[in-house]
Amino acid sequence: MSGPMLLPSSPSMSSLAPAVREAARQAGELALPYFRSGAQTAAKLWYKGHSSPVTEADIALDTFLKRCLTELLPQAGWLSEETADDPSRLGQSHVWIVDPIDGTRAFATGHPDWAISIALVKDGAPVLGILHAPIHNRLYEARSGEGAWCNGERLHLSAAEAGSRARVAGPKPLVDRLERRLGPVERLPKVPSLALRLARVAEGSIDVGLVSAHAQDWDIAAADLILREAGGCLTELDGSTPVYNKPQPSHDEMIAVASRLHPRAIGAMRA
User: Fold this and answer.
1) How far apart are the C-alpha atoms of 132 and 184, rounded to whole Å?
2) β-strand pairing of 125-133 with 138-143
3) Which of 39, 119, 154, 245 has the maximum number of C-beta atoms within 10 A of its C-beta?
4) Whole-number Å distance between alpha carbons of 2 and 125
């Protein structure tokens, strides 16, 4: 990338977006040499905690994105899955929230459903979201109040009702719960990248995306904005919208759906 772009304390998202988009694309190029379609990654692999995989690609992308994005907006805080948490972010109005590879397990096993997720949050709400899925050659983008796009095409969820069977993706126990109350649904394969699962609701290929408890800010912040700007919503089951950059950046069970379907779908999940 070229040198840092100097921006005012409250930057215009339209002026910031092209450089963030380019950073996401370059991060994808960095990841591709490690990816092996249908096979184990070429990257070194280890586990944090009990079962969460990390690869050297995650770390390389995290380092690259932190440098690029911090240059773009030096006053912003930073929250990433692969960086030790710095509590100073809590005092910042703007915070970058990044997952360098959302869907590391998919990436590591040669599944195409992984993505680079970048959000800029202001006062707890996302104002810019970029999601890049290199293997699918799809780049999603949203700016608060300005709309959402995929590969430059505007995303806008139809006002028409879904067909007789809602197309649902998510963890089996949550899909079972929904079906018990809503009636038969079309069960789609679970999308291993949570960010991509939400983006596919935004583009209309999934009607209802279900999210287990303990999703983290970096899993959902960018896709949340993309979905909202496309005419959908992501809420917890009490109807509240996610708030970002809290001391504990995790969330309860959630539902992602076109706004027109939200009352019926969330009612089924609460029952």
Assistant:
1) 33
2) antiparallel
3) 119
4) 28
